[in-house]
Amino acid sequence: MDISINRKFSPFSSLTALLFLGIFSLFATKSTAQGIEFFKGTFEEAKAKAKEEGKPIFVDAYAVWCGPCKRMAKQVFTTPEAGEFYNTNFVNMKLDMEQGEGLKFRQKYPVSAFPTLFYIGSDGVVLHKLKGAQQLEDFIKIGKMVLNKVDHSKDYAAEYEKGKRDPEFIYEYIKALNKSNKPSLKVANKYLTKKKDYKDPVNLKIVYEATLESDSRIFDLLIQHKKAVTDLYSKDLVTAKIKQACETTAAKAIEYESEDLLNEAKAAMKKHLPKDATLFALQSDMEFCLAMGDAQKYLKCCSDYVKKEVKDNDEKLHGLAQQIEKNFSKNSSAMKQAEKLAKKALEQNEAVLDYHLTYASILNKNGKKSQALKVANESMELASKTGAEKHVRQLIQIIGG
Q: Scanning 172, 179, 365, 400, which has the fewest C-beta atoms within 10 Å of its C-beta?
C-alpha cells in the first residue's frame, strides 16, 4: 500500500493493467506503429545503446536466400503489434550472417540454421536463443519471457538495503523496478515524502518515472511541477505519461470493482487532458460495465460511443458487434444491438469477409436462420478469392444449412 500518500487503494496487478490496456486498444484509433525498427549500427554500438536505455538486444540472424526468414520479415516484423512491443522493450538488429557485421557477429555467436533469433543482454550474454521462424503470437510471448529474465533491480535492492539513498541511485532503482514490473511506489514514496528541491532535475526525473497511476500523490507532484518536467522531457512524453496514469487507474477500478476510482480517473483526465476526456470516459465506462457484466449500462455506453466517436467506422462497428456477441450472447437486447452494428459495418465495407461471417453468426443466434444462411452463402464468392471457403462452410454447417 502507498505508505505516504492518502489513498485507499494499494497497487494492483500489472496483469490487470495489461488486460485493460489491451481491451482499451480495441476502441482506440488504429495503431500508428509501423513494425519493428532495426538499429543500423554495429553490434558493439547496439550494446552501448542497450546499456544506456536499460534494454536487452534482439537479433534476427538471417540469410538473404532463406524462405522462412523472408516470411517472418514480411509477415511478423512489419506488424504494429510486433513493432509496439519490440520497439518499446528491445534494441533490435537484423544481421545478414553471410556478410559484413553478420560475419563478425557469427564468430562469437554461432549460427547453424536460419533464422536464428538471439536475445542478448547489454553485457553480451545470451539470454535466449532459438532456431526457426515464429508466428506473431509466439514471437511476442518469447519476448515477454526474455524480459522476465532481465531484472536489474536486484543489484539496486542490495545497495538500497545498505542505506544508499542518493537521488541518482533512487531514480535508477525506480526505473529498474518499473522495467521488471515490480512495485516501485514504496521506494518512491519514501524518498519523496521528505521535502525535496524540485528545481533539481534528478528529483523531477524521479517524479516522472514514479508516476504510474493518477490516484496518487506522485501524480499530483507531476501535475504540480508539470512545466519543469515538460522542459526536462517533452510535452508529448508528459501528455502520454498523464494519459497512461489515468488508464492504469481506470484498470485498477476494474480490479477493485470501484466506480469511485473509475470516476477519479475520468476526473483526472478531464482536468489535465480535456481534449481526450470525452473519448476516455466513453471507453472507460464501457470497459467497466463489460467487466462488471452489466449489459444494460454497457449498451447505453456503447450507443453513446457509436454516436459520438465511431459513427460510420466499419472496423470499430464490427469490433463492438463481436464484443457484444462474445460477452452478452444470452441477452436479447444486447444481441439486437450487436445485429445492428454488424449490419452497419457490413454495409460500410462489403469487401471484408469477417464482417459477413460475424453478421451471419449473430443473425443465427438471434433466431434468423434463413437470413443467416443467405448472408453466409453470399460470402462464398468473396471467400474463394482468399482461399477461406472452409470457414464459410463451417459457419453454414453450424447454422444448419
A: 400
Q: For the structural domain made of 310-399, what CATH number should be given? A: 1.25.40.10
Distance of CA 388 to the CA centre of its chain: 29
Q: Which positions of the chain have pLDDT values less than 70?
A: 1-33, 401
* CA atoms of 153 and 382, how far apart (whole Å): 53
Quick one: cell of 17? 493493467
CATH code reported for the domain at 43-149: 3.40.30.10
Cβ-count burial of 166 within 10 angstroms (0-12 exposed, 13-18 middle, 19+ buried)? exposed
| Spatial strand order in the sheet of 126-131 | 91-96, 57-62, 116-120, 126-131
What pLDDT is stored for residue 34 in this prediction? 79
pLDDT at position 110 is: 95
DSSP symbols for 224-262 = HTHHHHHHHS-HHHHHHHHHHHHHHHHHHHHHHT-HHHH
Q: Enumerate the H helices of 40-91 as residue ranges.
A: 43-53, 67-75, 80-89
SS3 state of residue 128: strand
pLDDT digits (tens, 9 = 90+) for 311-337: 999 999 999 999 999 999 999 999 999
> Angle of helix 167-179 relative to helix 153-161, nearest 10 degrees?
140
pLDDT tens digit string along 247-273?
A: 999 999 999 999 999 999 999 999 999
Instruction: Give me the pLDDT at residue 20, please.
Output: 52
Domain boundaries, the chain: 14-29+152-272, 43-149, 310-399
Residues in contact with 114: Cβ distance below 8 Å, sequence separation at least 6, in sequence order: 61, 62, 63, 66, 68, 69, 97
